[in-house]
């Protein structure tokens, strides 16, 4: 997948992460989307390291790892903004 595909993929992952982890975020919806895009990259990279999906193709494994990456980044962002 190209970079544009991963951005769209991350956007969807960010929306799903926000749906899974609702609440008031310090940065609002735009920050959540950006965290979703970053989470898709991080999750895709980590998933490819452990053999659960790859960054080169769309699969259920890569979608799950993108969502997990977005959830992790969203949780870390919330913890950092609370402190």
Automatic annotation (TrEMBL):
Topology term for the membrane: Multi-pass membrane protein
UniProt-listed InterPro entries: Transgly_assoc (IPR007341)
Span of the signal peptide: none
Annotated TM spans: 6-21, 28-46, 58-77
Tagged with keyword Transmembrane helix: yes
Location relative to the cell: Cell membrane
Keyword flag Transit peptide: no
Keyword terms: Cell membrane, Membrane, Transmembrane, Transmembrane helix
UniProt GO cellular component terms: plasma membrane
Predominant place of localization: membrane
Family: Belongs to the UPF0410 family.
Protein name in UniProt: GlsB/YeaQ/YmgE family stress response membrane protein
Source species: Alcanivorax hongdengensis A-11-3
């Amino acid at each position: 997948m190209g970079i544009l595909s991963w951005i769209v993929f991350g956007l969807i992952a960010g929306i799903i992460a926000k749906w899974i982890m609702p609440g008031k975020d310090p940065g609002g919806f735009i920050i959540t989307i950006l965290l979703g895009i970053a989470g898709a990259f991080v999750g895709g990279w980590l998933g490819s390291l452990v053999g659960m999906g790859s960054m080169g193709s769309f699969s259920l494994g890569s979608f799950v790892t993108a969502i997990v990456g977005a959830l992790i980044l969203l949780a870390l962002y919330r913890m950092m903004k609370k402190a």
